[in-house]
Specification:
Blueprint: E1 2-6, E2 9-11, E3 17-24, E4 33-38, E5 45-50, E6 56-58, E7 66-71, E8 76-81, E9 90-96, E10 114-115, E11 119-123
Parallel strand pairs: 2-11
Antiparallel strand pairs: 1-3, 3-8, 4-5, 4-9, 5-6, 7-8, 9-10, 9-11
């Protein structure tokens, strides 16, 4: 099982980035996936997740700005990030929930079983 996030980089405040998470070793269509981030000096926090039935959840800090989606045929999960703010810089991770587990609005990180290595997002003018 592998999850490989990509797409991070440097963007100006108000800008956009799209993160991708290419998965292998399992069929994306059967699993819930979450996105998390960890800023320097802070704990890793779950920010968004989606279930295989298409239901999606976001924490308040990203709601209305970030959109999670997936392409099961490509085994790739996405996180579209718009209107990026000074508080968004962090290392972003994608992670998988166990088979038949569902993610919830709280996007709890302790419910996930496999993690990618992370991709850095920097917001600066």
């Amino acid at each position: 099982v592998q999850l490989q996030p990509s797409g991070g980089g440097l963007v100006q405040p108000g800008g956009s980035l799209r993160l991708s998470c290419a998965v292998s070793g399992f069929s994306l269509g059967l699993y819930a996936i979450g996105w998390l981030r960890q800023a320097p000096g802070k704990e890793r926090e779950g920010i968004s997740c989606d279930n295989s039935d298409g239901s999606t959840y976001y924490v308040d800090s990203v709601k209305g700005r970030f959109t999670i989606s997936r392409d099961n045929a490509k085994n790739t999960e996405y996180l579209q990030m718009n209107s990026l703010k000074a508080e968004d810089p962090a290392v972003y991770y994608c992670a998988r929930y166990p088979f038949r587990a569902r993610c919830s609005p709280s996007v709890r990180r302790d419910g996930m079983d496999y993690w990618g290595k992370g991709t850095q997002v920097t917001v600066s003018s």
